[in-house]
Amino acid sequence: MAKSEVAIRARGLSKHFGRLRAVDDVNLTVGHRQIYGFLGPNGSGKSTSIRMLCGLLTPSAGEIEVLGLAIPAEAEALRQHIGYMTQQFSLFTDLTVRENLAFLASVQNIPSRQARQRIDELLAEYHFEDREDQLAGTLSGGQRQRLALAGAVVHRPQLLFLDEPTSAVDPESRRDFWEKLFELTEAGTTILVSTHYMDEAERCHRLAILDRGRLVADGSPAELTEGLSGRTLLVETREQHRAKQVLGQVPGVISAAQIGNSLRVLLAADRGSQQNIENALAAESVRADVGPVTPSLEDVFVAVTQRQAAGATHPMEHRV
Length: 320
Description:
The protein is an alpha/beta fold. It has helices spanning 46-53, 75-78, 97-107, 112-125, 141-152, 171-186, 198-201, 221-226, 240-247, 274-283, 297-309; strands at residues 6-17, 20-31, 35-39, 61-66, 69-71, 82-86, 159-163, 190-195, 206-211, 214-219, 232-236, 253-259, 262-267, 289-292.
């Protein structure tokens, strides 16, 4: 990717807190006008990485360039070009919707006339026309989320950092929120968003999976799932519990998860096969139908995090 097409580039990014390696030698490249996702469990290093990338936290090692600026040295210059939103509602609950937006506009040094015009635009765009005088503390979870996003983009940032912004809202609000994100990217904004929801990760243009501070996979959702081609099986049986016990002893089986009346089986890259699964079940007189199933991002997540847990010392970017 040409340098002019890159919004964020990090090399060897690390952050240590004493003996804890919160982020460990991470390399990232985020293109302009992309939604780039960070997927990982709590404690995987997502929030720490975001704070370093936007200049809020100094890395222990590594180089960061964001919108052509060296971070953290030029973090102050970067702030006028970025927006930042966390999972915790950080606006003033005792101010109205309009007052919150006006305060954020003043923080960004937007002239009063332009600020009023911009706030009117945001009230309409984020459906607050009839709630502009309502106290933020009385809004629903989904409404607070929309207000926080409106506040984060009041100055039209080129780059938006979102740290698990939908963790406390209902599925419908999450869906509406993501529609807003796509509108922002179409208008030219680059977005880096962390999540632990698989359905949200599937919406990203590109995705990094973090585990124990390491980058264990990086690619588009389609690239990552294609990397598991031939390694996912569906076992349909009325004896799910017994079948799961049998499969747990079969070499090459990474996981066997019950999904309704079926088992979803993930195989290691160099071991395991459908024939082995069928033979093992038949040997224990477990009647089952076994067949291939399309890999999912959850399968990718299990595959790469299991590899990390098994002690892989050099997680492979772009591959699973």
